[in-house]
Amino acid sequence: MRELRILQLLDLQGLIPQGLGKKSSMNEAIEEFWHPPPEGFLKYNIDGASKGNPGEAGFGGVLRDETGRIITLFHGCLGKATNNMVELMALEQCLEFLIQNNCQNVIIEADSELVINAARRISNGTRSEKVIKHWRLTQVLQRIQVHLQVLRTFSFIHVKRRANKLADILANHGVGCKNSTILWRWNTMAQSNLKNLCQNQAEEDIEGYRSKMTETNV
């Protein structure tokens, strides 16, 4: 399976989904930190935020390479929505970008177990209406199913919130924004408080990963 192969490349058995492998106490700690993808892969972290569930909602995501460098990021506003709906919208936006830019070898991470499990089931052939039996969510899942029929080299990984902080920043920034979706290329994004926040978090993610690797190698 794709997830198993990628996690074996990372030597992070603690991130292998239940049923694919066994956890060790060392790798349980690594699971809480963001880590760069293997060489030749990209990683897309996505998240959603709803202030009230349902309430004012936003979503966001960030694509990074094997060095931790930010390639692109997005945030959007959905008005009033539930956590599940806005998390799925984040996934849909992520997939649209990957298709439009012909991206391959991508790991998609989210801290929503519902979203990751739904994406896995659809990618394994389960029809969208059988994944989540709620008509509002099914509409989004149907579009996601179409996208997943186009993409081939990707994997979905469920992570803890601590490993998804940058996407969380973007999702919360999307709450109440006037624009439905804004996407930036990192190297052309103007300086702003948001860019500074994202840069600081990206650097913190890399430092946290390096620190954890140092601890486990001692």
Largest sheet: 6 strands, mixed
The level of helicity is: 40-55%
| H/E element order | HHEEEHEHHHEHEH
Stretches with pLDDT under 50, minimum 5 residues:
10-30
* CATH classification, class level: Alpha Beta
Please give the CATH architecture. 2-Layer Sandwich
Assess the beta-strand content as a share of residues. 15-25%
Total DSSP helices: 8
For the termini, the CA-CA separation is 31 Å
Q: Tell me the number of structural domains.
A: 1
Strand order of the largest sheet: 5-4-1-2-3-6
Structural class given helices, strands, pairing? alpha/beta
Specify Rg, calculated over alpha carbons.
Answer: 17 Å
Number of strands: 6
| Overall morphology | globular
Mean pLDDT: 86
CATH superfamily: Ribonuclease H-like superfamily/Ribonuclease H
Quick summary:
With 218 residues, the protein is of the alpha/beta class. It has a single domain, classed as Nucleotidyltransferase, domain 5 (2-Layer Sandwich). 45% of the residues lie in helices and 22% in strands.
What brief labels describe this structure?
218 residues; alpha/beta; Nucleotidyltransferase, domain 5; six-stranded mixed sheet; 22% strand
Description:
With 218 residues, the chain is α/β, with parallel strands linked by helices. It has one domain: Nucleotidyltransferase, domain 5 (2-Layer Sandwich). 45% of the residues lie in helices and 22% in strands. It is built from eight helices and six strands. It has a six-stranded mixed β-sheet, sandwiched between helices. Helix 4 crosses helix 6. The chain is globular and about 50 Å long. About 10% of the residues have low confidence.
